[in-house]
Amino acid sequence: MFKIKGPILVAMDLDDGSDDLLRQADALARSYKVRLSVCHVLPEIFAVRPLFPQLHLDDALKRSGLEAAVRDALLERIRAVTDRESPQTGIEVEQGTVHAGILRAAGRIGAGAVVVGGKVDDRGLHIPGDAAEHVVRYAHCPVLVARPSPAGKVLAATDFSDPALSAVEAGAAEARRRKADLTIIHAIDLLPVMSPYYGEFLGMPPMGLGEQMRSLWQTRLDECVHRFKAKGGGLLRNGPAASTILSAASELQAELLVVGTHGRTGLSRIALGSVAEAVVRAASCSVLTVRFV
């Protein structure tokens, strides 16, 4: 059963756009009865001065004063948005590259989940941004990419593999927490086949086998719906996995999409998986990624 056991770490700026991000993280922490910690990453503003070591102390004092000011500002924002007082909330101030600072803080406190936001592009769409994508790709724990999302269904995607099973478990837990219906989706994605004569084309199964395969996937999907008591039922769709999942989320007006990711490797796209990567980037609602190692 999916359960968050460690602190919720939310990475936030000091602008008003972070308020919804903080609310979603606070709700997650209260639901799982874990500590809420807030992380803010300062840019590298103090230069290394090997020729003037006597200035290191001056820089350290300036840094200490800046961090204290940031902590005070974060505590004030937390108090205004969540009614939490300082003993109830951890503050993590890092310096350097944003995603690296978030990941350091998550590792140091043993985060049970990380909550990150994004930015609004010139079309008014909420996109995760480079820092959020890096956190999703390399975090050791579930990551919630929080976007403003109206109340709706929880949509969990599965290909019936172990990582996807973890995602469905998380989707069921989130549906209960949010008092929302859970819908489970499986996309039948025909893989492109290379031919020396015709180039790339979609590999079609032999006549009759396609219906047998579809019947098999439908049976497995029905079992999944029954196992997780998905009140929103199951969706079996034809098409590329990422676009099919995103289309279904839009049709259902989902408030949360849940996808599984694979264990970490040295290759960034394999670390996240192309389907999860596309969903995180393009979804209009919040996305929860659940890692299977």
Question: How would you characterize the overall build of this protein?
Answer:
The chain is of the alpha/beta class and 293 residues long. The protein contains 9 helices and 14 strands. The strands form 3 sheets. Strands 3-2-1-4-7-14-13-8-9-12 form a 10-stranded mixed beta sheet, with helices on both faces. A two-stranded antiparallel sheet has the order 5-6. Strand 2, helix 2 and strand 3 form a beta-alpha-beta unit.
Radius of gyration: 22 Å
Assign the structural class, choosing from mainly alpha, mainly beta, alpha/beta, alpha+beta, or little secondary structure. alpha/beta
Q: What's the arrangement of strands in the largest beta sheet? A: 3-2-1-4-7-14-13-8-9-12
Helix count? 9
The run of helices and strands is EHEHEHEEEHEEHEEEHEHEHHE
Q: Average pLDDT across residues? A: 82
Low-confidence stretches: 192-202, 263-272
Number of strands: 14
**Helix content percent band:** 40-55%
Q: Give the biggest beta sheet.
A: 10 strands, mixed
Shape: elongated
Distance from first to last alpha carbon:
16 Å
Strand content: 15-25%
